[in-house]
Model the fold of this input.
Amino acid sequence: MERSITTIRFRLRKTSLALLVACIALSSAVMPTARAADDGADRKRDKYLQLFVTLPYLELRTGPGRGYPVTQVAARDESVDVLKRKTDWFKVRTERGTEGWARATDMARLQLADGTPFKVDFGDLEGFARHRWELGIMAGDYGGATLIGGHLAYSLNDSLKIDFAASKFLGNATNGQKFELGLNHVFLPNRRWSPFFELGTGIVEIQPRVTLVAPIDRTDQTAYVGAGMRFYISRRFFLRGEYRWNTVFTSRDDNEEIKEWKLGLAAFF
Amino acid sequence: METRTRRILLMRPLLQAVVIGVLVVSLAGCQTLRWPWFGRDRQAVEPLETEAQAEQAELDDLDRAPPRVIDPQVERRNIKVPKIDDENFELGITYGFLSIEDFGTNPVYGLTGTYHVTEDFFLRADYGRSDAGRTSFETLGGNVQLLTESERQFTSYSLSLGYNFLPGEVFVGRNVAMNSSFYLLGGIGWTKFAGDDRLTYNFGAGFKVLPSDWLALHIGVQDRVFDSDLLGRTKVTNNIEMVLGVTAFF
Done:
């Protein structure tokens, strides 16, 4: 049987109508999400810092280190979004959408949208004088026992710091640990060699070693006063050495005086 | 005979006035001309006057507001500098095997925390936990027990300084490249074993692969060295561990 032309036309009309309906449905379904995605992208773009390249070009590496190869560049006057930072490397996204890691010294030569230079906090002598946090590891001697510990300090200002330390001491007769909180005043914070004075309190747990007869654990309050020296090495590192006079407030009649010295490596950030 | 002067003087008053007027005007005209000798001393005084005037003018200018050529109607754009996300801390878990000298090889699990100071150096704190097995002496001796069950717990704490070296990329198939690096570690800590804390030195090396910027997979070997007097005489023990780790940067 031969198909009539009208039927075909009707069918065409029907399919086109169905297509149209589908299109409308799809677009109405897709449009809001598309708009939402646009909003999200805008918000994301606002979230990242936008910088403008004023160098002839900005080298972008595959990883945050000088050993990784340069695979992309951002040209002069292009903008980059700063995604994140790892040590002295910044991950940026170019206008073309490519991502890579740029060196902090190069980033310091880029500009913000208002033409002011981008300020990068480097690990240098200025950073040594002015920073917020310090983290370090220390070893030394606590009344004849070997002392190992870590400390974290928060700077209230350039000179005054709140210092928290947790340490473990291992001696011939006793072992133990102590946790201390104190104030640390740094004189001449902007010098390579900067002396400091400290004052604090804490608790000390003393455990006689198993080989000894009376294995009684005790926990006492302790206070200390001390003085020391900080020496800036390079980048974000400095050495910290100190001498402390500890007083342990024992439950016995006499307080115990313990002398302590330690030397450590610390980093600021 | 009357002289000419007399004749002028004898002239009619009107004519006299006219003649005198002409003379006065012509003399005044002479004054306007700059004769070379004319006003020589006055010129010397003039600059002094102008200097004083200039000073006065300057003072006046200072008092007055500067003239505004353009009155800008544009408000200065205040650029908010978003905080850049730092990813220098790394936290993770480890699992592997620890060979405790004289006590056999046993599983060890732990926690690891790292602060990356520069691209080369990092500070790291490790915690590890394992249970020691039986010594050959205990196995052969039948009922002999050197340590109680709680004393067999082996717990290690260490604070280390690390150094990244040989950074590179590893390739998985044709399309995936991941950053990688070797590292060396050395540090100090303590080990709680057989009911006592022992001062421990640790050193080792590791290899890490970063599938993404925030995730790292580690494989590492460390030797934990401490003095032990458990088997009669004091000796240096080497306790070698090999662990796999997963860490995240934040």
Summary: Residues 168 and 236 of chain B are 37 Å apart (CA to CA).
